[in-house]
Amino acid sequence: MAALTPKQLQAAALLASGVTITETAEKTATTRQTLHQWLKTDDAFIAHLNGLKHEIIDSGRAAIQTAAALAISTITALMTDSAKDEVRLAAAKEILMMAGLKKASTIGSDSADKLKKARIKNAAFDAIFD
After folding, report:
1. d(C-alpha 125, C-alpha 130), whole Å
2. What is the DSSP string of 9-57?
């Protein structure tokens, strides 16, 4: 795999962070055509850009998980500490819903035929994106 140039590294960082191709071209003193060529044919550039995007997504997921833990703690505190019955009830319902206990249908079908049909349908749908 060929090493990326400093311009390619800078361009990949800009594109991964959401900067447009036009702005990236201006900031890196590169043409839009060159950027499009890298995005279509330069495997090392594409791989590096994809890696940066994965890092950003992973970072976002970690932040969301931290916020989710805080949200659950907040709802739990409302459920146990609130003086108002309606607040405690709403918090309890929210926790049950998050736990998947809202309705029995979240468990899935108890029919083998329905499960098989759903699995085949999902496999066909997934094949479209592979």
Report:
1. 9
2. HHHHHHHHTT--HHHHHHHHT--HHHHHHHHHH-HHHHHHHHHHHHHHH
Q: What is the pLDDT of residue 26?
A: 98
Contact 45, 39 (CB under 8 A): yes
Give the three-state DSSP class for 4.
Answer: coil
Q: Which long-range contacts (CB under 8 A, 24 or more apart) does 100-107 make?
A: none
Indicate the domain borders of the chain. Answer: 6-102
Per-residue tens of pLDDT for the chain, all 130 residues: 579 999 999 999 999 999 999 999 999 999 999 999 999 999 999 999 999 999 998 999 888 888 888 888 888 888 889 899 998 888 888 888 877 765 544 556 667 878 788 888 888 878 777 6
> Would you state the CATH architecture of domain 6-102?
Orthogonal Bundle (1.10)
78 by Cβ neighbours in 10 Å (0-12 / 13-18 / 19+) ranks as middle
